[in-house]
Amino acid sequence: MHIRRFDRGYTRRKFLADASRGILTAGVIAPLWEVLAADGDATAAYPEELLSLEAYTRGRIKTGDEIHAGNVEHVKNLLEPIRYEQILKQGRRLRTTRTTTDLMRLSPWEYIEATLRNQGKARFDGRGNVVAPDGRPWIGGNPFPDPRTGLELFAAQTLSWGRHDASFYAFEVQDVDVSGKVNFNYAGGWAELHPVARVSLEPRPYWEQHQDKLRFQSVFFLAPHQHRGTSFLNIWPYDQKTFPLLYGYIPDFRRIRQLPTDQRFEPLLPGTTMYLSDAWAAGDPLHTWGNYRVVARGPFLAAISGGWNPDDPDWRHGTHGGAKGNSFWDTTVELVPEAIVVEAEPTMFPRAPISKKRVWFDARNQIVIGMVTYDRMGQPFRSFDGAYSLYERGGKKVMDGAHPYWSWTHVIAADIQTGGITRLQQIRQLENAHFSGANQADLYDRYLTQSAMLRLGGV
């Protein structure tokens, strides 16, 4: 049992005092990263009040309970404002589970091993890019596992969105309006591959002929029929002051066109409330945003584990809430002992419809667990909250090489000003031809070239 001086009042005072002094060493009882590096478990870094929702709420909400409009006030301080409003006024509910403390369940295994192996080796070069000691691109894992600034948190997130060398996500998207009507149903695939900082795929750590690039990323759609074959390809330079190249293929035109790449605050397809800029809360090059600053620290409720649904053959999730009971995914959340909240402003987008974004990072693994953007008047505009999981439950698992697959499971993006909601979920497969997973050897040829765009456009 932890001694009583580490109660909720103590932790709150410590978070506030550290923030006021500009201190960003995570952990309350002990430095978090030292504890994690020693034994891979976060328990020794935090008091009981930050490791148990029941202890935090003094028994008002217990593990396994559901958070709803009748009890959400007990955890209001653990939620971003838009999710709180959804629970209070739109019938959103959250199931609760115990806090995950095992670091190896919070990111891909190889990514964590590379983080431990390469800790302390990263720095920013004169252009503001993350580099290894020899000045070449980063060599793998999180470059700043014990971050000292908001810039370091965003740099790590921008470097590797999904934390795999390569990922393919089969997905479904539904756009639900304020009346509960589903206006659009999309299905497609999202692929991303890193030619640098590779920890699983050969060659490592670089694909030599492409080490000037950060990632290849594409998205294509198979449904609805009028958008079937539509695809987009992003090629990101490693230099984070340079915009990606963006190519689009529209089947009606039967040709590939290069598209403006700085218009990143527009939906790719009608009806969606998500922009290119929203991807992983870091959908733009690092230095096209600025004024990164840590604005808060403290506990948070997030869907960091338990989000995989093995009971459905294609991993689909149930829905609830809203006007017709279909606005929100069924979601399981846990008490995150410490979240680091960072604000940033779009500095290279003079026509951006937003003035800033506020992003919550889990201090244990630095993954994004919430985002709210604000309009030009400074009012809450849109939110982006996702769920993650190790794809393992009981005797069921999805393997990624020698270890269970870790990834996102679903996302809810909401426009608080119009009431529109976009629901996105990762599913097992599309048309028995495109399968979710990590580090597939043929990903580049199948999805990440202009030739691949033409082939996909002919489906």
Architecture overview:
There is one protein chain. By secondary structure, the chain is of the alpha+beta class. Helices cover 15% and strands 33% of the residues. The protein has helices at 8-20, 32-39, 53-56, 81-90, 109-118, 150-159, 443-447, 450-457; strands at 66-67, 94-96, 123-124, 130-131, 166-176, 182-193, 213-223, 231-237, 245-250, 255-258, 289-302, 319-320, 328-329, 332-346, 354-362, 368-375, 380-390, 392-393, 396-397, 399-400, 403-404, 406-415, 421-427, 429-430, 434-435, 437-438. The strands form 6 sheets. The chain has a 16-stranded mixed β-sheet that branches. The chain has a two-stranded antiparallel sheet with strand order 3-4. Strands 12-13 form a two-stranded antiparallel ribbon. The chain contains 8 helices and 26 strands. It has a domain at 152-457: Lipoprotein localisation LolA/LolB/LppX (outer membrane lipoprotein receptor (LolB), chain A, Clam). This is DUF1329 domain-containing protein. InterPro entries: DUF1329. Pfam families: DUF1329.
Oligomer: single chain
Biggest pleated-sheet summary: 16 strands, mixed
CATH fold category name of one domain: outer membrane lipoprotein receptor (LolB), chain A
Q: Superfamily at the CATH H level of one domain?
A: Lipoprotein localisation LolA/LolB/LppX
Radius of gyration: 21 Å
Number of strands: 26
Mean pLDDT: 92
Give the fraction of residues assigned to helices: 10-25%
The CATH top-level class label of one domain? Mainly Beta
Number of helices: 8
> pLDDT below 50 for ≥5 consecutive residues: which ranges?
none
First and last CA, distance: 60 Å
CATH architecture assignment name of one domain = Clam
Q: Could you say which structural class the secondary elements and strand pairing correspond to?
A: alpha+beta
Please tell me what the overall shape is: globular
User: Which percent range describes the beta-strand content?
Assistant: 25-35%
